[in-house]
Amino acid sequence: MSEARTPTRTPGAEGPLAGVRVVELAGIGPGPFAAMLLADLGADVVRVDRPGGPGLGIDPGRDVTNRNKRSVVVDLKAPDGPARVLDLAERADVLIEGYRPGVAERLGVGPADCHARNPRLVYGRMTGWGQEGPLAQRAGHDIGYIALTGTLGMIGAPDEPPAVPANLLGDYAGGSLYLVVGVLAALHHARATGAGQVVDAAIVDGTAHLSAMIHGMLAAGAWQDRRGANLLDGGCPFYGTYETADGRYMAVGALEPRFYAEFTRLLGLPDQAPARDDPARWPELRAAVAARFRSRTRDEWTAVFEGSDACAAPVLSLREAPHHPHLAARSTFTDHDGITQPAPAPRFSATPTAVRTGPALPGADGASVARDWDLPRDPGPSPASPHPNPSAHHPQ
Q1: Mean pLDDT of 209-223
Q2: How are beta strands 94-97 and 122-127 bridged, if at all?
Q3: Concatenated DSSP letters for 313-342?
Q4: Out of 87, 142, 171, 205, which one is annotated catalytic?
Q5: With b meaning 16 or more CB within 10 Å and e meaning fewer, what string describes 71-99?
Q6: Which of 54-68, 113-127, 139-153 has the lowest mean pLDDT?
Q7: Is 393 helix (H, G, I), strand (E, B) or coil?
Q8: Rounded Cα–Cα distance for residues 146 and 86 (Å)
Q9: With bands split at pLDDT 50, 70 and 90, how would you rate the model's confidence at 212?
Q10: Is the omega angle on the peptide bond into residue 346 within 30 degrees of 0, that is, cis?
Q11: DSSP readout, 222-249?
Q12: CB-based contacts of 364: which residues, under 8 Å, 6+ apart?
């Protein structure tokens, strides 16, 4: 059983979580991203990879969700595999896993096993459906989780299928970020009381929570329960996207009257343009706005709106975004080892963060982790069990 440990900053550590130790049982999607965020904030994150890797088909050296971490390889099906993970858990503040419910328990590294060694441990569980409920044992992915919460059905044109927002809304906004919030809250509680706990972060719960304001508007009669008919879902002609002469797009968010006045002035809409406050005339207003945007290229419109409060912006691609003058001035993106990637966020005045190391290569850090964490043995794989570990993971 571990004793209370006072966090210590390691030489060269950066960020407000310096001194916090995190064990990440390797998975895919929201778990690794949550662990990356903790690592970006300065935590010492040790990723426990399994033999054979995650099988995602991406070069581990370019998987930026593993930046600022260290990696060891442990075969949890080997006789001493669970003990190696429990050695880490005993010395950790946080453990994150993304197995299907019950798998960690069967492998011998569930909450009860870990808390027996370290009662202060925050045990974070990342799943799509949650630890209980009729769908808890079902496989799934982001798109299915957000579909059931009502959020996917909000996105897109009313006469087209719902638009898929990559996996940003469910996996990362509704999943990773809620896991991190839960872990940090539980860590605060553990520091105050000496008692760890389990954090059950389900993507369905987090994504539903993100729609709290919309549910309030729905209850107040200020939101229609259908796609493309509301102020913030593309139904409003002064909050949406428009194609330009060169086949690119501009985004408009001129909601307030003073911003709208600036927008229509710079756009060149005639004074007799349809009234903005009459939803019955929104189709007419949308057509007028669309016609104006089609008269110039995206870059020409960007120049027109430059320096104004019209709330109009060019829709940039992933490769274009790092070069935008504002993002470049703030260093919103950074280059590390030849990979352009988002810089750590948010920012801190006293404990600044940074991309300290590139993606951790599987198994590359066994010796340094054993030394720094004062482990009784190298946490790497046992020589007696070289076979790949059959995946206990599932898609969230």
Answers
A1: 97
A2: parallel
A3: EE---TTTGGGSHHHHHHT-EEEETTEEEE
A4: 171
A5: bbbbbbbbeebbbbbbbbbbbbbbbbbbb
A6: 54-68
A7: strand
A8: 34
A9: very high
A10: yes
A11: -S-SSTT-STTTT-STTEEEEE-TTS-E
A12: 70, 71
Burial of 114 (C-beta count, 10 Å sphere; 0-12/13-18/19+): buried
How far is it, in rounded angstroms, from Cα 99 to Cα 115? 18
Q: Which residues contact 182 (CB under 8 A, 6 or more apart)?
A: 124, 199, 201
Of 114, 55, 48, the closest CA to residue 379 belongs to 48
CA-only gyration radius of the chain, Å: 25
CA 365/CA 382 separation, integer angstroms: 15
Q: Is 49 a catalytic residue?
A: no
Q: Calculate the alpha carbon distances from 283 to 28, 53, 274, 288, 299 in Å.
A: 43, 52, 9, 9, 26
Burial class of residue 3, CB neighbours in 10 A (0-12, 13-18, 19+)? exposed
Window from 10-24, 228-242, 333-347 with minimum mean pLDDT: 10-24
Q: Is 111 helix (H, G, I), strand (E, B) or coil?
A: helix
Give Dmax over CA atoms of the chain in angstroms.
81
Residue 309 a catalytic site member: no
pLDDT at 12 over 60: no
Asked if 48 and 25 count as a contact pair (C-beta separation under 8 A), the reply is: yes
N-to-C CA span, the chain: 31
Among 14-28, 65-79, 115-129, 275-289, the range scoring the smallest mean pLDDT is 275-289
- Which is catalytic among the residues 141, 189, 324, 336? 141
Region at 359 (left for phi over 0; alpha for psi -120 to 50; beta for the rest) = beta
- pLDDT of 387 reads 38
DSSP state of 362: T
Q: How confident is the model at residue 3 (pLDDT cuts 50, 70, 90)?
A: very low
Of the listed ranges 52-61, 198-207, 248-257, the least confidently predicted one is 52-61
In this structure, the number of other CB atoms found within 10 A of the CB of residue 149 comes to 21
Strand, helix or coil for residue 356: coil
Q: Are 102 and 129 in contact (CB under 8 A)?
A: no
Average pLDDT over residues 145-174: 96
Q: What is the pTM for the complete model shown?
A: 0.91
Contact 75, 385 (CB under 8 A): yes
Position 30 confidence tier, pLDDT thresholds 50, 70, 90: very high
